[in-house]
Every structure is written in C-alpha cells, then in structure tokens.
C-alpha cells in the first residue's frame, strides 16, 4: 500500500483517504520517498518532515481527510511566500529569509486542508528554463538524471514526476510551468493572467507571472487549479469572476467526444517553414496527437499568427525590464543577505556588494538588459516597441479565435536536453520557451499535456484558449490524455522506469 | 554654513527678472495608506504601522486607496484642472533605503489632473498661477542618521529608518513657471502656498500641518536679465517647510543667483537645501550626471479611469472655496479686502466665522481673535487654531461681556482659566468668582473704605477737582481685584463725594 501512494493520482489518493487511509500514512510515504530519492533529484530546497506530519495528523484528527483536498500533500515552488517557512526564490540573496505572511495561493491550499511537503527548487527568481540557475544546485529529470527537468519550475516537475509529491504549484512567466511539465511527462497549466492571485509570489515579471498546477493527470491539475483560483482583493490585477468549473470539464473531455470543436494548428510554432530548432521526434508526436484529436471529431485547420515570430525578442525586453525594477528591493537593507556592512563601506557600496554576491549570473544579465531597455533615450526603441509587439500578438490570438476554439502547438521544440549543454549559450536556452511565450505575452490560458516519447523522453502538447476560457484547455487535454491512455493501456507516467527499489541513477 | 555673496534685494530687481515655480507635496488625511490598510496616524512608535505591502516585502502587491484617488480628483477640480479619463501609476526607480521597493509608485506621463490654475492676491493685485499637473504617489520612509555632525547620511555612524510614513498617500501639485511677479515673486510664492493650503483645508483632504510634514514645498527659482527673451537656469530648493520659508527661500535664491550672474558665473541647475535657522540654501548632493529614473507603467496596478458622471458629482459637491468664501464673508461682516487679508494671514477666517456662527458679532469676534488671542498664540509659539479655546467658547466669553457679567479685564482672566483647561468661560467665571460686582454691600464697603483711606484725595474731589476721582477708582479696583465695574465705582464715588 505505502509504495503505491507515490504513484497514485490525487483522485485515487482522495479515494484512499475516504476509504480509511490516513493523511499521516500518505504524508510519511512521501517524506520517506523524499528522504531516499531527493539526494539525487534535488527537487526540494526545504522539507520539514515534523511539521508535515504534525499537519497531517491534525487533518486526520479533524476527520476531514478525504473530503475535498483535505489530507492531500502538496509541494510549492519556492517562489511562493510561506509564513515562517524559508522562502528563497532560488536566490542566495534571500537565504534564511522567513516571510511573515502567506501567499494567497499558499493560504488557500492550507485552508483546503492540504499538507505542505516542502518548497521546490527553481531557477533563481524564476529566470531560466532548466533549473540550472538555482543558487542551491541543479535538479535532475526523473526520466534521465543526466537531463534537465525543465525550468524554472524544475523542482516541482521533478518532484511530481519522480513521485516525491502527488502534485505541485509552479509559476509561469514565459513557460515555466508548461515547459518543465512537458519535459517530465506532466500536465501543467498556465491560467488566464489575473485568474489566480499573484499576492505572495515573489515577482519576476509582474505583467506575465501566473501560478498554476503541475500534476500527473489533467483531472488532478483541474482540481488543484480550482483550489487556488478565483478573485483576490489583495491583487489589483486579479479578475473578479467566479472560480471556473474545471474538473467537470476535464471529466467530460475524457469521454472523448470533440465533435464540433475547431482546433487551429499554429504554423509559426513548428509548422511549414517554421521547423528550425524543432526535433523531428517532437514534431512527429505532435502530428500524431493532432490526428488523434481529429479522430475524436475535432475540426483541424492551420492558422497563421505572424507576430508570434517576434514573441521571443519582445519577451526578453518586457520580462527583464519589469524584473530590473522588481528586483531593486533586494538591497541588503531590510532582509536577506547583506555584504560589506563592516564600517569600511558606505551605503551604496554595501548595496552593490550585496547584489554582486547575492545574485547569480543570469539574474544579473537580465537586470542589466532590463535596466538598459528602460533607460531614457532607449525606452521607446526597446520597451515601447516590445509592448507594441505584445499588442500585435494579442491581435493574432483574437483573429485566430474568431475562427477556432483552441490553438495547439508542441509545448517545446525539443525534449529535455542534457545538463550543462546550454548554460553557456543563453540564446539557445531562451529558445526552449519559443512555443510557450505567445500565450504568456497575450495573457491567455495554455496547458501542456504529454503526447508521447521521443528518444525515451516525454514530449508535450500545448493547448491554448481565449482569456477566461481555461476550461477548453482542460477539455481538449483530457480527451487527448484519455485516448492515449486507452491506446497504451496505461498512464503516461507508468512508462517512467520504476525506481522504487533503488536510488535514481543507480549507484549514485 | 553659507559663504555666498548676496546682492541687495532691490538691486537684484534693477537688473534681473525672476521666474519661480513650485512643487508642493501634500500628505492626504486618509485613514489608511495609499496601497495597503496600514494606519496613517502621526507620531506612532517607529515601524508599528507597517505591513508586507508598505515594507515592500517580496511577493507583496499594492491595492490603490479609492479615497486617495477621490481626494486627488477633488483637489484637481478645486484648482480648475482637467480630470483625466484614463490615468496610470508608474514606477520611479532609484535606490535609497527609505523606499522599500527600490522604486516609488507615482504617476508620470498620465497624471490624474492637468491644466488648472489658482489666482492669488498680493497687495491688492491678482496673479494667476497656472497648475501643470496634480498627481498621486506614495510617501517614503523617514531616515534618521545617527552620529554625524550634520544629520546627513555622510559622516553618520549609523542610520535608522521609520517606515510608518512609507506609503502614506501624497499628492504632488506642480505649477507651470510663474513669470512676471517681479519684486513680488517671493510674496507670490508664499501667497500661492497659503491659498493652496486654504483650499486643501476647505476640501478636508489633509490636515496640512507644515510642521508635521503634511505639506512640503520645493521652490524653483531662476533669474534672467531684464528684457531677455529666455529664462535663466533654475535651482530647485527643497525642504521649504513653512509659509514664511517659502518667501525667504525665493528671496535668498534671487540674491544669491544675482551675485553669481553679476560676476559672469553660470547658474548650476541643481537641487539645494533650505535652512530654516539661517534662511539660506546650500547645494544638495552633487550629481555628476542626471539620475535616470527609468519610469514605466506600474504593472501591479490597473489603470484608473474616473467615470465622468462620478467626477461631475464630485465637482457639484465641492465645498465653497476659500476665495469665494472670503468675498462673501467680507460682505457679510462689512470689512475691506485688506482687513480680510489680515484675517487670512493670521489664519483666523474660519475661527472668526465659527465664532460669529456661535452668536458673537463679527467685530467682536475679529477683535478677540486678532487681538488678545493672537497675542496668546504668539506668546505660546503656536497657531491660533492650536489654542485650547474653541470659537464657541470665545463667543460665550464675548456674550458674558455684552451682558455685563464681566468686563474686558475679567474676560482675560476668564480666558486664562479656559486655556488652563478649567472649563468653559461661564464655568471659569463662576469658579474663579470673576463676575463684576454689582451695587453690592461688598462694593459699598470698598468704596467707603477707599474714601476713608484717602481723605486728602476725597477732599480734593469734594473741592471740585473732579479728575482726582480716578485715584479713588483705582484704589477700589485694587481692593476688589478688578472685579468691580469701573464705571459703577466712579458713579458710586461721585454720589458720595458730591452729595455731602
């Protein structure tokens, strides 16, 4: 029983809890697994087994375990602020900081009765696509520990794929939920911008950041999304609409009837004339998945969104610009790291030394980029121009949605690449987000769902929908997942080499 | 402090024409801060009125204070501004420990209010001050630099920061350059801030206490040779925190700049600090290059789009503005503009008006507030409105005089009691036994005693030297400790000394 908890979906865990299993049992099983595996995977930055078990016991004692999400363990990306629990955003500059408050996402999950397993590793301040930019070490992909788990939510993806958490919260600025989900065989959804509260997410790029679910199935992702979604008066950009009904859409989608659904395949994302940088295996799995949708009754057509070609340069001006401002608060004055306060350095020097030593190379690169783009005399040419491109991308989406219900593309151009292979080539690293950036810039929802393996590694299928139509993402993803599971006769993650008996990577 | 050579003020004006401009920061009197729910009460223990938002903790987000936006629009309306239908907040990025986020949330190219004006009067002449913009932003924390000689960060041993003030809503009101004031430039500057303060008080949007930093001025001053088509290079004097200082700062800068221009030295466009004690300015931290604040629209806040109907409603509900009110009151009280100007300068218009409303005659009310009460305020070094006496109590005092219960001298004693917190005028009169003595036995006895004690004087009076009676009145007043009514005493003495 206890080993199977770590390969169950959350729906199955709910049933087990309702059936008499205790949250303490489930939690202990995950903690044991973390203890055994995380030395190799490096998915977590902070785990407090005692606190988790205490919390699980309290939920058991309340008699609520098994109702709703009560008693289900969860992992949070370390960008989510948690009261009294170390929160670093993967940065040295926040080492040791214990926030005095909870993010809305964390508070909602706590109120739902979930049990926090720990905080997961990430690229520093969510800047990266491989989790190699963490100040606290790399995270490895459970499918192949020599490969990256994606990023920036790579700790969350590795934890959920590796059986170190049943599900996890990630955040997505340019693809940081969808890309790691794709590379580890998970379902990951970036909600409509403004539909999940950003209060308590350590900001990277305010106009792009969104928290969302990372899970083993589409239904699980929908359940987690429902728990964290909805209006929050503490976030001015939060949209005041009712929490969407997503789990029900996922269940209905799994029935496999897509008749009448109009699906647009985006030419600029891996289509004719736009295959540079895409692996053939990825394109093949994508084509097969589109055919599967068609076989379920979907009406498929190709759609052109020319401005998508400009998404990458626009993103790498807007996100660093906002980041350069958002990260100004880390000056060593009030919290976190302080360097040089020895009586020999003045205020400016202490701030400079703190930032010099507290930030990693990628963060500095983006601060410099953003500072430059916002500078007087360059603002219009860079930031202003990028915002115009953003408008064009939104218009391309609107035009496309006039004809189709959803847009689809591969989630990433390639499968998980080897650790270290792109760390010295930022432009190659940035290209990992090629397919996910348009939805981020337009603020529309997008999901990644597994669509097969290439070279033994997972390939992700992306479904994008109009703003506030997140349920379409879940519906289409659930249909694809169900059809593939049926054809395979097993769940996608069941293909992951079982490692219950030995540590990841054999004799590590 | 300053070794600047100065040109005599009158000399400045023979050669140069000043242009001034003012940027005024007003802390709004909202109950909570601009972007969070923290209290704005002045004087609390340091860092007790803070939360993750106003401390700029990682992950925190701002939510704009609707009341602050409303107050800003009302200020704009009172200044005849155009109210934006679409307005945004922006980030002003710079590093300093008193801005917790590393940027100040303010407004840049899309302010709430633009293109207004304010007419001010100096010596009977009206000057129109054009208002360029009125925008909303957040205040910074307060630094306390410990251990240095100057109180500045340089040379300090360590610094303490109080974030209670961080995030208090701040409205910035910026004038366009004001040319043409000539010799009156310093007074126009002062009159503008004074009138602005009156408007803010009438709107009830701020307590506008300059000594608490509710109202802070930056004064721009430049000089150009008379007849020149171009304006000169301006300096921006900060830290000008009283009405009197506004005038002094402009005057000093004109005299200092004239001396430089006379010797052919270029004026540096720089920030200068005003020193209350010496009335001088000194250069701020020298900057090799201009700071680039990298303004961009604040992505954490949604744009503000004031509904036109709502703005029209706010405009309709504006209170009577000070200029209109003064003109109406001058008519009602039958006083000249100059007499009204005295009341304005003394900060007594509202006090007099309230006193009149409580039943006193306008002339009595003016007499008391500009006379005895102004003296008391001056002695105590406070504003009239800070005296511990209400307009209703002043009216009560005046009523007691009119009724003959007390005289002016007793009224001053009664006022002592009121200011000492002994209660209202009637209660103090009662408790201190200050009522004028009527034709009482006690007074008869005092009169008789005075005649008896001063037989020589009494004899002179009897002998027809009527003016000698004053000495006897004085004696009676002395023994009754002023409680007697001098006229009554005189009458009683006359009855006794002329009847026999």
UniProtKB/TrEMBL annotation, chain A:
Family annotation (PROSITE patterns): AMIDASES
InterPro entries named in the record: Amidase, Amidase_CS, Amidase_dom, AS_sf, GatA
GO molecular function: ATP binding; glutaminyl-tRNA synthase (glutamine-hydrolyzing) activity; transferase activity
Catalysed transformations (reactions): L-glutamyl-tRNA(Gln) + L-glutamine + ATP + H2O = L-glutaminyl-tRNA(Gln) + L-glutamate + ADP + phosphate + H(+)
Active-site residue list: 77 (charge relay system), 152 (charge relay system), 176 (acyl-ester intermediate)
Domain Amidase: 25-473
Record key words, sorted: ATP-binding, Ligase, Nucleotide-binding, Protein biosynthesis, Transferase
Designated name of the protein: Glutamyl-tRNA(Gln) amidotransferase subunit A
Gene: gatA
Automatic annotation (TrEMBL), chain B:
Record keyword Transferase present: yes
InterPro entries, A to Z: Asn/Gln-tRNA_amidoTrfase_suB/E, Asn/Gln-tRNA_Trfase_suB/E_cat, Asn/Gln_amidotransferase, Asn/Gln_tRNA_amidoTrase-B-like, GatB, GatB_Yqey_C_2, Gln-tRNA_amidoTrfase_suB_CS, Gln_synth/guanido_kin_cat_dom
UniProt entry tagged with the keyword ATP-binding: yes
Enzyme type, top EC level: ligase
Cited Gene3D superfamilies: 1.10.10.410
Occurrences of domain Asn/Gln amidotransferase (ranges): 350-497
Family matches, as HAMAP family: GatB
Gene that produces this protein: gatB
Membership in a protein family: Belongs to the GatB/GatE family. GatB subfamily.
Domain of life: Bacteria
Protein name as annotated: Aspartyl/glutamyl-tRNA(Asn/Gln) amidotransferase subunit B
Catalyzed chemical reaction(s): L-glutamyl-tRNA(Gln) + L-glutamine + ATP + H2O = L-glutaminyl-tRNA(Gln) + L-glutamate + ADP + phosphate + H(+); L-aspartyl-tRNA(Asn) + L-glutamine + ATP + H2O = L-asparaginyl-tRNA(Asn) + L-glutamate + ADP + phosphate + 2 H(+)
Molecular function, one GO term: ATP binding
Keywords: ATP-binding, Ligase, Nucleotide-binding, Protein biosynthesis, Transferase
GO biological process: glutaminyl-tRNAGln biosynthesis via transamidation; translation
SUPFAM superfamilies assigned: GatB/YqeY motif, Glutamine synthetase/guanido kinase
Organism name: Blastococcus haudaquaticus
Record text on subunit structure and interactions: Heterotrimer of A, B and C subunits.
SMART domains in the cross-refs: GatB_Yqey
EC code: 6.3.5.-
Record PROSITE patterns: GATB
Function: Allows the formation of correctly charged Asn-tRNA(Asn) or Gln-tRNA(Gln) through the transamidation of misacylated Asp-tRNA(Asn) or Glu-tRNA(Gln) in organisms which lack either or both of asparaginyl-tRNA or glutaminyl-tRNA synthetases. The reaction takes place in the presence of glutamine and ATP through an activated phospho-Asp-tRNA(Asn) or phospho-Glu-tRNA(Gln).
């Amino acid at each position: 029983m206890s080993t199977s908890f770590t390969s169950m979906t959350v729906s199955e865990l709910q049933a087990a809890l309702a059936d008499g299993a205790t949250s303490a049992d489930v939690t202990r099983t995950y903690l044991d697994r973390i203890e055994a595996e995380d030395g190799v995977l490096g998915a977590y930055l902070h785990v407090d087994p005692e606190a988790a078990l205490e919390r699980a016991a309290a939920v058991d004692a309340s008699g609520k375990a098994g109702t709703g999400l009560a008693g289900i363990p969860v992992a949070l990306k370390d960008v989510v602020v948690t009261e009294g629990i170390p929160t670093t955003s993967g940065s040295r500059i926040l080492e040791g900081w214990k926030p005095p408050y909870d993010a809305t996402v964390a508070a909602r999950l706590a109120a739902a009765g979930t049990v926090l397993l720990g905080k997961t590793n990430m690229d520093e301040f969510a800047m990266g696509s491989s989790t190699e930019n963490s100040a606290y070490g790399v995270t490895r992909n459970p499918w192949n520990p020599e490969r990256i788990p994606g990023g920036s939510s790579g700790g969350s993806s590795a934890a959920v794929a590796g059986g170190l958490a049943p599900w996890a919260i990630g955040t997505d600025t340019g693809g940081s939920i969808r890309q790691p989900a794709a590379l580890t065989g998970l379902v990951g959804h970036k909600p409509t911008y403004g539909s999940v509260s950003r209060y308590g997410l350590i900001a990277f790029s305010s106009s792009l950041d969104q928290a969302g679910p990372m899970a083993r199935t589409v239904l699980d992702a929908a359940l987690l999304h429902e728990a964290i979604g909805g209006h929050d008066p503490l976030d001015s950009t939060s949209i005041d609409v009712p929490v969407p009904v997503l789990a029900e859409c996922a269940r209905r989608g799994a029935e496999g009837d897509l008749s009448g659904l109009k699906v647009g395949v985006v030419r600029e994302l891996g289509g004719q004339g736009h295959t540079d940088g895409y692996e053939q295996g990825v394109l093949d799995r994508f084509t097969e998945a589109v055919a599967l949708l068609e076989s379920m009754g979907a009406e498929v057509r190709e759609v052109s969104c020319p401005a998508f070609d400009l998404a990458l340069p626009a993103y790498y001006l807007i996100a660093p610009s906002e980041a350069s401002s958002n990260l100004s608060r880390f000056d060593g004055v009030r919290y976190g790291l302080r360097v040089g306060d020895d009586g020999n350095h003045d205020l400016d020097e202490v701030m400079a030394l703190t930032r010099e030593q507290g930030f990693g190379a990628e963060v500095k690169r983006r601060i410099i980029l953003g500072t430059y783009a916002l500078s007087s005399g360059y603002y219009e040419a860079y930031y202003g121009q990028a915002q115009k491109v953003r408008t064009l991308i939104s218009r391309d989406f609107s035009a496309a949605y006039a004809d189709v219900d959803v847009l689809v593309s591969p989630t990433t151009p390639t499968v998980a690449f080897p650790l270290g292979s792109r760390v010295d080539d930022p432009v190659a690293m940035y290209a990992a987000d090629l397919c996910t950036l348009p939805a981020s810039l337009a603020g529309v929802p997008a999901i990644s769902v597994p669509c097969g393996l290439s070279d033994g590694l997972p390939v992700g299928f992306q479904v994008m929908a109009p703003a506030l139509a997140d349920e379409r993402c879940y519906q289409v993803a659930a249909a694809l997942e169900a059809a593939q599971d049926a054809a395979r006769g097993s769940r996608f993650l069941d293909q992951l080499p079982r490692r219950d008996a030995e540590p990841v990577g054999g004799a590590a | 402090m300053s070794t600047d050579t100065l040109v005599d003020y009158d000399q400045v004006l023979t050669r140069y024409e000043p242009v001034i401009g003012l940027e005024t920061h007003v802390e709004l009197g909202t109950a909570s801060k601009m972007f969070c729910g923290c209290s704005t009460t002045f004087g609390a223990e340091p860092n007790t009125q803070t939360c993750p938002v106003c401390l700029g903790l990682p992950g925190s987000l701002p939510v704009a204070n609707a009341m602050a936006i409303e107050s800003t629009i009302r200020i704009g309306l009172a200044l005849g501004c155009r109210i934006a239908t679409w307005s945004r907040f922006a980030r002003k990025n710079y590093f300093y420990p008193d801005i917790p986020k590393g940027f100040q949330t303010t407004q840049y190219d899309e302010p709430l209010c633009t293109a207004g004006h304010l007419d001010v009067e100096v010596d009977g002449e009206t000057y129109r001050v054009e208002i360029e913009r009125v925008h909303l932003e957040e205040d910074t924390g307060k630094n306390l630099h410990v251990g240095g000689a100057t109180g500045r960060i340089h040379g300090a041993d360590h610094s303490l920061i109080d974030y209670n003030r961080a995030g208090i809503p701040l409205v910035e009101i910026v004038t366009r350059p004001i040319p043409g004031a000539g010799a009156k430039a310093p007074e126009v500057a002062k009159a503008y801030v004074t009138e602005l303060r009156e408007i803010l008080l009438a709107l009830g949007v701020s307590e506008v206490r300059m000594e608490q930093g509710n109202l802070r001025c930056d004064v721009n001053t430049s000089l150009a040779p008379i007849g020149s088509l171009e304006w000169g290079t301006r300096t921006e004097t900060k830290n000008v925190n009283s009405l009197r200082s506004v005038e002094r700062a402009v005057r000093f800068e004109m005299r200092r700049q004239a001396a430089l221009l006379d010797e052919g030295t270029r004026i540096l466009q720089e920030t200068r600090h005003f020193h209350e004690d010496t009335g001088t300015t000194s250069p701020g931290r020298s900057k090799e290059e201009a700071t680039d604040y990298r303004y961009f629209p604040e992505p954490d806040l949604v744009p503000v789009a004031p509904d036109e109907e709502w703005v029209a409603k706010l405009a309709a509900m504006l209170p009577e503005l000070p200029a209109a009110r003064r003109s109406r009151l001058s008519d009602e009280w039958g006083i000249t503009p100059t007499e009204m100007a005295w009341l304005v300068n003394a900060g007594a218009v509202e006090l007099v008006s309230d006193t009149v409303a409580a039943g006193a005659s306008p002339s009595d009310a003016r007499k008391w507030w500009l006379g005895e009460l102004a003296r008391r305020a001056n002695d105590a070094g406070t504003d009239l409105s800070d005296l511990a006496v209400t307009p209703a109590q002043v009216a009560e005092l005046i009523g007691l005089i009119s009724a003959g219960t007390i005289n002016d001298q007793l009224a001053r004693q009664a006022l002592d009691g009121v200011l000492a917190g002994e209660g209202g005028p009637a209660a103090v009169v009662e408790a201190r036994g200050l009522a004028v003595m009527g034709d009482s036995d006690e007074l008869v006895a005092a009169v008789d005693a005075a005649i008896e004690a001063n037989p020589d004087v009494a004899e002179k009076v009897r002998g027809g030297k009527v003016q000698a009676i004053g000495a006897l009145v004085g004696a009676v007043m002395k023994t009754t400790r002023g409680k007697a009514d001098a006229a009554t005493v005189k009458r009683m003495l006359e009855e006794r000394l002329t009847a026999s």
